[in-house]
Amino acid sequence: MWSYDKILQYPIKIKTPNPGLATKIISQYGGPDGELAASLRYLSQRFSMVTPEAIATLNDIGTEELAHLEMIGTMVHQLMKNATVEEIESSGAGAYYTDHGRGVYPQAASGTPFTAAFLQVKGDPIVDLTEDLAAEQKARGTYEWLINQTDDPDVLEPLKFLREREVVHYQRFGEALRKVQDYLQEPRLFIMPKPDFLRSNELNR
Amino acid sequence: MINNRRLDEMYYSNPEACIPQELVIENVRLAAAYVPYQFMCEVFSPIESLAAGTAFPELFSPYNRKDNENRPCRLSEC
Ligand SMILES: [Fe+2]
């Protein structure tokens, strides 16, 4: 179960519309290394994870990624909402506008719609945590390419915040992997005393 | 900021200091990945944490725009 706070994790107040930038930032909403893929990946991998620490890490980070999804949606919305159709067309956002108007649709910057093919749940804790480490690096990289494409401080500050969160998540998944490696290496050999009903043959003999 | 200085130099220069991470990882096996454990030392204030995106100074690694972009290294630098 979840509880919801009606507040963004980091404040977003973009004053200048920029529809062209919106159709790039949308990639962190529904793109291959975006926040929707991240949250679904972690929240789904959680069920087959081992050790309480690693399960909690997936649950907490998966939840935080949903808060990031909300931030990205807000950024796209604010960048689109006061743009004129002429601005949308001239900024190269015409294709997006044709399909989605000024709405927020989960797609990649290239236009590819969101798909679960962006993520994996292998059901093997080492495989899944290793994927998560890679996912955090890919998200960090995407934020850097987005940061390179804008000078608007209203956009830059939330992007930098989100990028730093990916760095922190990488560290946490790395620690979770250590716990899981230790747990899987632990010898687990249990010796059960033979119960009486199995001894009956020996007694009768 | 963690830069190219050696971590042990950085952390052992003041023997009293709280070292915010594991410096040596033991029992490493081949074909496995390891990230050092982080240990709790100092944290930013809540408002600094919000601005930085982390409460932990040792994890704060801001991106410096285009100078981080990958470029092939010249023969003289490689
Ligand atoms: Fe993340």
UniProtKB/TrEMBL annotation, chain A:
Q: State how the cofactor is bound.
A: Binds 2 manganese ions per subunit.
**Keyword line:** Calcium, Manganese, Metal-binding
The residues that the entry says bind Ca(2+) are 60
Asked if the keyword Manganese belongs to this entry, the reply reads yes
Q: Where are the annotated coiled coils located? A: none
User: Which residues of this UniProt protein bind Mn(2+)?
Assistant: 35, 65, 68, 136, 169
What GO terms are given for molecular function?
Answer: metal ion binding
User: Keyword Calcium: yes or no?
Assistant: yes
Q: Which InterPro entries does this one have?
A: Ferritin-like (IPR012347), Ferritin-like_SF (IPR009078), Mn_catalase (IPR007760), Mn_catalase_dom (IPR039377)
Q: Which cofactor does it need?
A: Mn(2+); Ca(2+)
- Note one Pfam family from the annotation: Mn_catalase
Family, similarity comment: Belongs to the manganese catalase family.
Indicate what this protein is called per its UniProt record. Answer: Manganese catalase family protein
Source organism:
Sedimentibacter hydroxybenzoicus DSM 7310
Automatic annotation (TrEMBL), chain B:
Q: Which domain of life is it from?
A: Bacteria
Name this protein carries in UniProt:
Spore coat associated protein CotJA
Task: Identify the taxonomic lineage of the organism of origin.
Answer: Bacteria, Bacillati, Bacillota, Tissierellia, Sedimentibacter
